[in-house]
Amino acid sequence: MGTTWFKESSYAWIGLGSLWIIGFIGALTRFSMSFFQVQIAMDLQISRGFISMAWSTNLLITAICAPLGGWLVDRYGAKRILFISAVLSTLGTGVVVLGNQPILFFIGYGVISGLAGIGLTTSYILMFEWFKHHRAKAMALLGSASSVGLAIITPIFVSAGWLTWKDAFMASFALGIVVTLPVIWLGIKSSQQQNINKAQKDRPVVIEEHDMPLKVTTSPKKFVYLPIFVVVVIALFTCGINMGSVEMNLVAIHQLADVSPSMIALSMSILGIMEITGALICGYFLDRYNKLMMMTILYGIRILGFVFLFMHLGSSPIVFAIAFGITYLTAVPGGILVINEFAKGKGKHTGVLLLFHQGGGIVGALIGGLSFDYFGSYQNLIAVDILICILVTLGYFILFTTHKRKLRIPNNKVAASEAL
Question: How far apart (Å, rounded) are the C-alpha atoms in residues 188 and 83?
């Protein structure tokens, strides 16, 4: 009781492990909807637009339920809300696989699984409560769960050709009952925070460099913030469209271009691996260099990836997986960090920014399915992704050239001396 590992309470690391397992299992649903879209449409005799509508409904309900979940956590505690969220997610998956009907597919995945969004902010709340010294590392580890799951699950399902989307949903449903619910009940203890606070009172708190607020010189005129806020909002909305396009339609895009199943499997695994690698690499550079410059480079890399995807070259699946994967998990926190620096680290705009990102995901998923139904290809969707990424890249570059002095961050030596 009250033991510490690496200056953090042991309960914090146990809780992180529990949440990581839950995130890993959640990758099964993400994999199923992206990899088996064509098979789902054929088996249920539905259009891809219908599938996109279910995906978008899920995102919309999740976005609505996210702030509600934060309010419920304050009233009833994180463990209860996380458990209810897991129950809804498991129930929705079960309705999809056991119902085997178009309307039940929409209700199960689009509505019931969307209601599980009440637990969307719970993991973030717990990370901020549990960790004081290794908060950033814990967030990175938690974020890697879904990506690791994608990288591992893809080759398993591809190498075993007899596995279908129903098997993936059934595995998610079974693991939800057998693993996720018990892990939450046993791994997330209701007295956890009290023990953490008690352990932390017994030792001095050492402020690490990444916990220090950034010192940024800003103009007293508030109107100079508006262009930055507008660019970041457009960037996060664009990122949402990119993610909705890719997560919902990437495999279908490759299949339509006659890419071999083995190449698709390899590219999806690379995508998952690069998501983890990119989060670490981009996170490192965002902490040390001008954030507007880094965000300009990030969206420039995305443009390169989508251009290769549009051309359908033999190397396109791999190049796109590397280019998009390395930027996948960094565009959102990078944009929020830019805003937070000008808001002096208060982060009061975070909820609005995430809402725009979620809205972009809804739009991306919708236009992907509808584009295929009307035009028989995804070229228009990819072209839209390229154009809006170019717009965002130019926006960040203009901000960089006009505000680079205001967003200059001290180097490691200066930061270290200030910490002393």
Answer: 10
Residue 387, pLDDT score: 96
- From 118, 119, 138, 120, select the one nearest 128 (Cα to Cα): 138
What is the structure's pLDDT at 333? Answer: 77
SS in 3 state form for the chain?
CCCEECCEEHHHHHHHHHHHHHHHHHHHHHHHHHHCHHHHHHHHCCCHHHHHHHHHHHHHHHHHHHHHHHHHHHHHCHHHHHHHHHHHHHHHHHHHHHHCCHHHHHHHHHHHHHHHHHHCCHHHHHHHHHCCCCHHHHHHHHHHHHHHHHHHHHHHHHHCCCCCHHHHHHHHHHHHHHHHHHHHHHHCCCCHHHHHHHHHHCCCCCCCHHHCCCCCCCCCCHHHHHHHHHHHHHHHHHHHHHHHHHHHHHHHHHHHCCCCHHHHHHHHHHHHHHHHHHHHHHHHHHHHCCHHHHHHHHHHHHHHHHHHHHHCCCCHHHHHHHHHHHHHCCHHHHHHHHHHHHCCCCCCCHHHHHHHHHHHHHHHHHHHHHHHHHHCCCHHHHHHHHHHHHHHHHHHHHHHHHHCCCCCCCCHHHHHHHHC
Give which of 364, 368, 358, 404 is closest to 388, Cα–Cα.
364
Q: Return the pLDDT at 213.
A: 40
Closest among 380, 401, 369, 268 to 46, alpha carbons compared: 369
Coil, helix or strand for 348?
A: coil
pLDDT at 329: 77
pLDDT along the chain (420 residues), means of 10: 68 84 83 81 87 86 81 83 92 89 92 88 75 68 74 76 86 92 80 46 45 41 67 92 87 89 87 84 78 92 96 94 89 78 53 78 84 87 95 93 60 42
